[in-house]
Amino acid sequence: MTALVIGLGNPGEEYAATRHNVGTMVLEELASRASASLAVHKKTRTRYSSARLVGEAVHLGVPMSYMNVSGGPVSSLAKYVSAEPESVIVVHDELDLPFGTVRLKRGGGSGGHNGLKDVTKALGTPDYVRVRVGIGRPPGRMDAAAFVLKPFSAAERKELPLLVSDAADAVELIVERGLEAAQQRVHSPS
To answer: Lower CB density within 10 Å: C or N end of the chain?
Structure first.
């Protein structure tokens, strides 16, 4: 089954460096590794490319909609490439994980993440793979919605390339070896 890898984020330069766009950053790293160019695909409202990652054929996509309404483009792209929900891998920011952490799972709730909520609704199931990229909790009493739309701190920006690389490595492991083997490697690195 050919994987469809989706990087969630918001469109536009004003959001490019924000925490909410770490999924898009990972997808762009994967496209770079595959020497693939993400081209606008108007029919599905995504930036899309087919590519090869770790020797396997994959589809790469980034919704061109805002995070909260990314389900429509994800579902449209899944239909376009004939991907079943179980072959969809969604890379997204995760407040409930410390910055720098990557965790993998299939299914589950949205945890208050409106992008995941919309993708689940559009696909008709929560049973897709999630690559959860830890961005940490907001400091003090800062609203979570405001926090995810802020750029990474100076200290975080120094570590961000490693985090993006780790998350991209995790996607490659899923594609190459499957979710369980990837979880064992990512969740308990030797």
So the answer is: C
